[in-house]
């Protein structure tokens, strides 16, 4: 059943289409702002932004978190001028609609009186840690970190509020040199992966499916931004990681051995998701609806304005538009109408299956009877009707 559900989700066409544009001149202006800001920041500011796994960007250093490329809310019905508080948001360098929202300043345009604080994190494990220290209101994490957050011993007061993407070939095991036909050929080799991430979950699943375990290889906990250097120095033989690092390693003599698309077919589907704290959701249901409507709009841009969307994402990731377009093919981007069905349908079961596997790996203490209570669907359901 899970295999069939995953296949159905991977075939999703992405739903409704929306419109949006960005000028070349504005893109160049934002790039210049980022470069100048990076040079101007002081060492003390850098140290302050480096805590809890955050990676400061030039946008953050100059106080320009989004580029503010639009002046009007692209979803007029979702505009909220009443909220005047602060929203602390975690983002990751993953080519999905969240980066479009950030680059174009869509959330700032739809919440004009809010203070939006964007902070970059290396992996879902770091994001979960920040939720645990009450440093975030909303943030991106993979499905396996989300399950860990919702299960014992963590039991964090957070809910899953959105699916950014269904992960396919975008997360893969890439090996350095050699003639590797399967993961079995990597027995005894050094494999890098960010612990607690969806890639870590997929790697453990692949080892399990091959009759191996984590002791069959030498697992190295490494953030994506450190993998290229370790790869060049010959310190690692392989890595399970996502773009843009995945593409970099492939270009530097790497060969794909297997991927998260393959482990999804065998019953271990993975997603990039958005989590929000119970406290923030309870206090700001209207803001959650605005946030969801804006993300849903940005997802539509990927299909209706692919080149423009890729340009937005490339300004943040620092790679080419052509590379981003290729990376799009490694994901499925469901819109709100699809997500409403997923949240109310197979997602609780997928979460439970994920939890049961993580328990066998010693990553959590107990599997909950029902994971539907960690899914917040009010905003998705409302946006899906529009």
Automatic annotation (TrEMBL):
Gene3D superfamilies assigned to the protein according to its UniProt record, in alphabetical order: Periplasmic binding protein-like II
A GO cellular component entry from the record: periplasmic space
Span of domain SsuA/THI5-like: 123-289
Alphabetical list of InterPro entries matching this protein: SsuA/THI5
Keyword vocabulary terms for this entry: Signal
Chief location of this protein within or outside the cell: periplasm
Keyword Signal: yes
Domain of life: Bacteria
GO process terms (BP): alkanesulfonate transmembrane transport
Localization in the cell: Periplasm
Record SUPFAM superfamilies: Periplasmic binding protein-like II
Pfam family, one: NMT1
Keyword Signal assigned: yes
Family assignment from sequence similarity: Belongs to the bacterial solute-binding protein SsuA/TauA family.
Protein's name in the database: ABC transporter substrate-binding protein
Organism encoding this protein: Bifidobacterium reuteri DSM 23975
